[in-house]
Design brief:
Elements (H helix, E strand, L loop, with lengths): L1 E8 L14 E8 L2 E5 L10 E7 L8 E9 L7 E9 L10 E5 L12 E12 L5 E13 L11 E7 L4 E3 L10 E10 L15 H4 L3 E8 L7 E9 L8 E7 L16 E7 L12 H8 L11 H13 L4 H10 L3 H14 L14 H13 L1 H18 L16 H20 L7 H17 L6 H20 L13 H18 L8 H13 L8 E10 L11 E9 L2 E5 L6 E6 L3 E6 L10 E6 L4 E4 L3 H15 L8 E2 L4 E2 L2 E2 L13 E2 L14 H14 L1 H17 L14 H25 L10
Antiparallel strand pairs: 1-4, 1-16, 2-3, 2-5, 5-6, 7-16, 8-9, 8-15, 9-12, 10-11, 10-13, 13-14, 17-18, 17-23, 18-19, 19-20, 21-22, 22-23, 24-27, 25-26
Helix pairs in contact: 3-15, 4-6, 4-14, 5-6, 5-9, 7-8, 8-11, 9-10, 9-12, 10-11, 10-12, 15-16
Pfam families: BTK, C2, PH, RasGAP
GO biological process, one term: intracellular signal transduction
GO molecular function: GTPase activator activity; zinc ion binding
Length: 771
Amino acid sequence: MLLSAGEAKNLGPSSGPNRLRDLCTFCTISLDQEEVYRTKVYEKSVSPFYGEDFYFEIPRPFQCLSFYVYAKSMFQIRDLPIGKVAIRKEDLYKYCGKENWFQLQPVDPHSEVQGKVHLEMKLNELITENGSICQQLVVQIIACQGLPLISGQNCDPYATVTLVGSDQKKTKVKKKTSDPQFDETFHFEVTRSSSYKGRSHFHVEEEDIEKLEIKVELWNNGNLAQDVFLGETRVSVKILRNDNAHKAWYLLQPKGNGTKSKPDDLGSLRLKVTYTEDNVLPSPCYMALRNLMLKSPDVKPISASAAHVLGDICRESVGYDALLPVVRLLLHHNRLLPFLTSVAALELENTQFKANTIFRGNSLATRCIDDMMKIVGKSYLTVTLKPVLNEIFESNKTCEIDPVKLKEGDNVEVNKENLQGYVHKVFTSITQSSSSCPPLMCDVFRSLRQLASKRFPADPHVQYSAVSSFIFLRFFAVAVLSPHTFQLRTHHPDPEISRTLTLISKTIQSLGSWGSLSKNKLVRQLLVRRCAEGTKLRCVHVIFNREVHKRAQGRKRLGKKNFKKRWLRVTNQELSYHKQKGKEALCIIPVKNILGVEKLEESAFNRKNMFQVIHSEKPLYVQAGNCVETNSWIEVLSQVSRCNPGRLSTFHPSAYVGGSWLCCTETNESTPGCKPCTATLLANIQLDIDCDRETERIFSFFSSSRSRLQKMEDACAGMSVYLGQQEECSAFTIQDPKETFRTIKELGEVLDDLQAHHDSKGALTDEPGTM
């Protein structure tokens, strides 16, 4: 879902003529009653311009999308609700993709409901003790689903059942659940007419039936506090006229079915909502399209690939949003790095401007790299920025240095010191974060450096500006400015902290702008090089050291091989072992020469807790003190060497002994490994990617742009016939018309086949049942 909170207009007071004049306002976005986003706080305006976009996947079923406008005052303990806009899920299609002004409605606690209740109703015939016959209405409260959280916790719900005009009956309280299972039955005697004579006349008078209804209310048990209304539903007994039993799900409604008097004029809110649902088919249906997308990094030229074609044809309609599922799909299959390298090379090839302006615009390459950093860099930002951002939020020191914006009593020198202190802490955290930089980001930055240097060989600084465009301007600076977007903070900061973050972010941006301050070039070079090489270059940093048992290397093939105690030490630059701690190194292996670090099978030397360091010479076999130390060594060594060029993709899990590998019996010692390496590009990245859903999203984007795909096909045909660039081709990137034409024809066949699968399955819905 893509939401754009544009602006509010003429926000009105809930009481008093000027109540909002001195209040700040903000807007929240909720799925049912669960807040998922909120905007910044805007100062003292009854017509604030929010201008914020929110894109998110909806992780659960929902009934209503709501926008609440609140007033915030330093004298109020709780935020004051001004009004809301609520759009039911089934009505979203009416507003999809269009900007609309919505009138704010009052926020009534009894109207804030969500969830549904499962009911069964029956009419039974009973003979009383005196022999007369009466009708009995049987109501079973079966279950509820999707009840709201109360103060962030599951509620303690119970239900009340009332036949209008009779006593109220109540279920037991269910503890701490939003999906209670009641399975309780209640009986009500229904008054019958005196004209009743037999089974064929088993009914109530028509005029009486219209008046009878069952009311079911859901409440949260407040224990010592007041119970909270959760919603109600009313069902007329006349539903049983044609059938003596009825069973259905009912959406909970506001109290009194939402009847309310005409509200005061609370103002209006301008919104743009884009909501899409994906009907995901069985996995085999997506195999052809998925394979076509995964083949993209290998297509030459890259502009003829299916992934690049998708970005080309969707550029005018949805910008480069269509590339996000492509990035996620390629990332899951370890195919993202070669694709990013190819599209970056294409952009550099077409760059005609100065070297210090590369990767500054919004292009297919920059958008893909942006999406990659947001996906794999979340934990990196958390480790690097969250501690210092928490300090900024909690200390809340004033940092305003603009004389025009200074408040009465502010001291600009003190504010300047506060700002310098914050900037120093943020920048220090960034420059010391290279060991936490995800391996994929390191690899991408290294590729950018190499590509930029090749494209502009006369500019020695271009390799750094290519990376600084991303690491400073598009990553750290953006995260500092909007920490809530990267889940570094729960909500938007208040206006004063927001101003502080803006000043810090501008400073970070100036460090990333290569032409801003020449004295910052050395600092930028240092950080860029650290991130691209994945190691700190400023000093030798001891990371880990322990006493181990090392298998002697032996200079001759038949030399004595045994295990000796050694002191193993790793820094950011080298791995070395010593006879004792503090003694001179007996052997030094540069970190840059490490090609892999893996566990060694116990059967190799009949020893536990073994691991091997694979480098340019013979493997180093080490026995750690215990299993925990073994894992620590592997983790540390993998971390410092993760960005080395030439890392192995396979290894031998056992040793080469007696003229053959014990694991695969190969006799050639240089034979490639027989088992995949465990350290991959996705190491330390916790991702939950549904490839079928991502492929369905790709299919949706292609389907909505089939006309553009046809125009691109026609452009390729025209270029092949007329042997040149035609006017209609300028909207697309077509380097090789024949190869691009071939890809488009293959795409058309795959898309038609997938559409046929959708047509055979029919439209799928998740409606909650009979209402």
